[in-house]
Amino acid sequence: MTTFNTxxxxxxxxxxxxxxxxxxxxxxxxxxxxxxxxxxxxxxFKNGGRWSFTMHGPDGQNYPNESVFAEIEQPSKVVIxxxxxxxxxxxxxLASSADATIVSWSQAFENSELAARIEHIVVPANExxxxxxTAEVLGK
Length: 140
Hints:
This protein has 140 residues and is of the alpha+beta class. Helix content is 31%, strand content 43%. The protein has a single domain (2-138), classed as Alpha-D-Glucose-1,6-Bisphosphate, Chain A, domain 4 (2-Layer Sandwich), CATH 3.30.530.20. Strand 3 (49-56) and strand 4 form a beta hairpin.
C-alpha cells in the first residue's frame, strides 16, 4: 500500500469545513482537481452510504466513480473507500486550531505499483482538491 498525505489550514471553523464536505451540492462544487466538474448520481452521506458520481475532466473525458462513506465522525473525520479502480481509502481529518481548521488528507492506495505510476497525478490533484475546498468554505 502507498499513502499520500497532505494538509491545509483553513481560517474557518471545523463546522464550516465539515458542512462543505457533508452537503452533496457543495461537495459537487469543489470535489476533484482543478478544471473538473461533477455529476452526482447518488450521495448518501452516512456511515456505509454509497456515493456514485461522474467527474468531467477539462479534456472532455468522463470518469465514473463508485465509493462508500466507510466512516463518518461529525465533525472531525470522513473516511471514503473508493471501490472502483483505482482502489484507495481517503481519510479526511479535521482538527480545530486557534482560528482555523487543519484539514489532513490521507489517500492510501491498495496497489502500491499503481500508486507509484500515478503519483505525479495524485500529489498535485490532492493539493488542487484542497485549494477548491478552501475556496468553497471561504466563499471565493
